[in-house]
Structures are given as C-alpha cells and as structure tokens.
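dumping this here so i dont lose it again. seq + smiles for zinc ion
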Amino acid sequence: MGGESEALDETGRVKLRKPPMAVKLRQTTFLDMTKLLLLGTGTPAPMVHRAGSSYLVQSGDERLLFDCGPGSGRRLLEAGVNPAEIDHLFLTHLHYDHCVDFPYIVLARWDQGVGRISDLPVYGPAPLRRMSQRLFAEDGAFGPDLSARTEHPGSHYIYEARGGILPRRSPEPQITEVEDGSRIESAGWSLDVAEVVHVQPQLTCLAYRLTTPDATIVFGGDTAPVATLTQLAKGADVLLHMCHFINGAVTDERLTCCCSGHLDAAQTAHDAGVRTLVLVHITSQLETPGVRERVLHEVAQVFDGQIIFGEDQLTVPLGGIDMEPVR
Ligand SMILES: [Zn+2]
C-alpha cells in the first residue's frame, strides 16, 4: 500500500493527511500592547518591493527601530511613522543594507524637531561611535549641511517659522556601543545582546532579544548557524531569521560560513523552541514561483511552529495566528 492509497477513505474520497491548521477565527479586533512591523525584508540587492533590513516595534508608547537599511526611512513614512517619532534605534551591524538610513533618520528627526525632540539614542557594535562622529561632526560628511542649517539666514528663517528658538545646535545622537552579553533595561522593555557569526573580524554582527511585558522578539541579525543565537532565542515568541539562500543550492563555504539558508533558519527555530519563525533578508532566489512554496514546505519539515515568509509592511502576529472568517 503506497502513501496515496492510504490517503483514500472507503468512499474513495481523499482524506487530509494532517488535521487542518489549528487556527482560531478572528472574532474581535484585539490590540496587543506590543506590535512588530516588518519595514524592510531585503538584502543589498536593490528591490522595489523589499527595502533593506528594518523592523519596527511599538511597545506601549515607545517606538523601537531595529536596523535601517536602504529605503527603510520611506517605509516608515508609508507606515505613518515620522522619523522624529522613533525613540530608540538598534543596529545589528554596520553593513550598509542595515544602516544606510541612519543619517537620514537622525537628520530628519533633528531638522523637523526644531530643538524640541531629544537626540536619538542609538545602540550597536563598535565602531558605531566613530561612524556617528564622522557623519555629524563639524568636519564630518554632513558638516557642511549642518553648518548651513545652523548658520545661514535662510535656514534661521525656516527654523523660526517652525517654532524653533535660535541659536541652533547640531544633532548629537546618543551612542551606546554594545557587545556580546550586554543588557539594556528600560522602564517598558529590556534587551539582551549576543554576538553572531557574520563577517568578523571586519565587522561585528549582533543579535538582539527584546523582552516587553507581553512579548519576546529575537532579531537574529545576519549570521551563519550559531549556538549563541539558538541560546538567545530560547522560548521566544518570534524569531526573525536571515534566509539568504536555499540550502543545497549554495554550498560554497565562503558564503555558508557567514550567512544562513532556509533550513538553517528552520533548525535554529526548532532548537530554540520559538513559537513563530519569520524569514527575512530574502533574496530573489527564494522568490521564484514554486520555489517559495518549496522553501516553506521544507522549513515546515524541520520546524513545526508558525512560519511567516517576510514581506515589507507586514505586521507579525506575536501570539497565535487568527484566521479571517469567510464573509
Ligand atoms: Zn544584510
């Protein structure tokens, strides 16, 4: 008896091999305290539908931004969030596909805030402080812009028209360099840091575990499979994991030693026992029609939790996944 005949019942109808998904029907609009929005799910390869890595968390009345790759500032605006409304920025590493909108967010916040919004707290691996200084110092990349905006009469006029009070000072992001084992505690959340394996020694890459009163979210950063990430993600509600290629389709160790494929993400999610795995850092290899479906099927063979294929502007359910009723 083959598998196919076993799937037929006595009337010849096909039986479901597995019970239907255990999902609840969505009956009410329940607003969780913590929300997770995928702003950018792409890679360095320019894609119109995938900005560079960036994820927004709303926790209570605070907005936490994790990474800000190319296009993420625009994605923020599309989501109805002004860069001035970000309360904390966390960078996993200083590859440009994770941080190139850092100066945009700092400058837009500072410019529109007209001295009324505090400087942005930013956390990330060294040399984040040096990068910030070389962007915003008097002799930095944006030094001429900043001297024009703080000294030219035309800029003074606009500044005062917006309600600012002269003299005007330059932005000074509040930089905190963090490393493996760092822990940041705030009134409404805490953050644990682990180093992952990406492109050391040139760049240090970090993963973050965010704990809020009602959710635990782990941002895996860019990494090869590594025990430190599995440990960091133990029992988390959500793990966002790099899914840069299809395991087996890429075998060159120069890439597999620093990045993860779909089965690597699945194994880490399984070993960590997370509730939901979100595949992010998606390349075009995974998007070919039929390939994406195969990827999800194979991930589900390894990890039996909830699986979400990341898309820009997708709100990730932090608890169980509800099913819309048919109307
Ligand atoms: Zn990346």
